[in-house]
User: What shape does this take?
Amino acid sequence: MGRDKVANDLREQFPALEQKVNGYNLIYLDSAATSLKPYSVIQRMQHYYQFETANVHRGAHYLADRLTVAFEEVREQVRNFINAKETREIVFVRGTTEGVNLAANCLADFYFREGDTLLVTEMEHHSNIVPWQMIAQKKSLKLEVVKITEQGDLDLKDLQNKLPGSRLLAFSGCSNVLGTITEVGKICQMAKSHGVLTLVDAAQSVCHDIIDVQKWNCDFLVFSGHKIFAPMGIGILYGKCELLNQFPPYQGGGSMISEVCWTGTTFNEIPYRFEAGTPNVDGVIGLGSALKFIKDWKIHETHEDQYKLLNFAKGQLRNIEGLRILGNPTRHAGLLSFNFVDVHHSDVAQLVDQKGIAVRSGHLCAQPLMSRFGITGAIRASLSVFNDEKDIEELVAAIKMAREMLK
Assistant: This one.
């Protein structure tokens, strides 16, 4: 089956693509920001609201009991999806950002000591920079940055030099700007040889690579459901049991307790200790449906097709006068960021939008990386399972039009 046929079959699963924007058929090239939702996820969430509305882990009635079972089944789906050893290593959070903040704050309470060094990389999203900056300031820690090469790969020599004496390395499995797919297993092994904890930001990896936390031997991993066809407001923090068991509670409230009395409170076991209050039940149910969609449609088997489409896009974009593609990493996920020397990125994106083409523009929540390349922002086109060569051809034509209009 050809790439275009696969993309067309998958395109029919996404109702958002049936609409027109400014009189044109929508071409969605912003999946790195958030994925469109397939019918199966939308219908599953509608069914929840129509027939299953209740709360989980509380209540003795039929709906509450049935929903609690469904809720915990999704936790097992996630465990299987990332190949975690135990279901209790899966913590439901609001997204990647909350997952990083939870890990950072809990580590600050029991693990980090004044003067410790934390490592992040030049390619990080703000979500994997700012929480560590805040903790570093609060606990008097040192925050050091691992460099990237001009191609956009992580500089492993610089990493090797900075690992000795460090306490934690937080890094992206895939850059949301450059599309760099990092060697997660190798990097974690390097860190382990120096006794350094690792946290992997898999917000982009989760849609471009198969996640295997046991093979990678990472200590923590975070990702957001909305990048993989699930609703917004739901995400995952994975952590090894021996570490999560040492974490103090992140928030106080219902569900995360064992017993409450005026003389003190004892806390629930993991992962419930970190899930205070009413959880995002519909988000969890939607995530489960999204993982089923990925399995049923064998989404991971389309990655090679997306890589070929990426190379087609590179070749087409390089023919545009004055256009610069950021980075050329060794392993490249299905997204490209680019800009012009003499035309502002936001002006181009707005003109492209007039043709019904959705791309992202701005600093892409990675201002330090933009500074690294001497720019203030870029345009990003990111691929998903439903995109095909025609989408790229339309994008290239729209960019050429914008370039001419803005000269």
Observations:
- The chain has two domains: 3-30+299-405, 43-296.
- The domain at 3-30+299-405 is CATH 3.90.1150.10 (Aspartate Aminotransferase, domain 1).
- The chain has a mean pLDDT of 96.
